[in-house]
Amino acid sequence: KNPRAVVRGLMQNIEEAGFIRALGLSAPPFSLPDTVVREIERQLGRSKFHSISIGGRDPLANVPFLLAALGSARPAVPVMLDTDGQRPDALGDLVGHLALVQVAIEFTGSEAAITHSVETLRVVATAKCAHALVLCPRDDTTDAQILRIVEQVHDVSQSVQMVIHPTTTTGDAPALDRRWSTLLEKAVAMHD
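^ that's the sequence the OP posted. Answer follows.
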């Protein structure tokens, strides 16, 4: 299918749901891909150094829209996708438009969620796109859980960049205490 036709179909569904009116936008022939392209060009014209980050609750639920917008805009700056990794099969054609795919694991889902996240990193690594893993452990996340994920991810890609965000229950900035420094040493040794 023609990407613009797909997006027009999506726009019709969005318009029927009332979102366009809620955003204060005009009704069709309103063209969201063209509007997004113009906005991307306008924003990029403001600065020499910039990038585009695609994120949100589930950005891979909108692949036809993203393909149409990125295909039309062809941004000259890097595009990063931030995802929870739950739709590895959705990356297909989109990965060619991306400079980096970042997968975040928040330790709130099932074992299947982690499996999907690891598979997403495998798909991106196979496509030779830069990729990163962000681990956001909770207070009840064990070091063993974190290290197991580091090992699984290392098995699918030795070039993944990894970030571990320690958490606190107080809301204060986390300190690099003995637990976290030991965990980071182990993770680096596994992934080195």
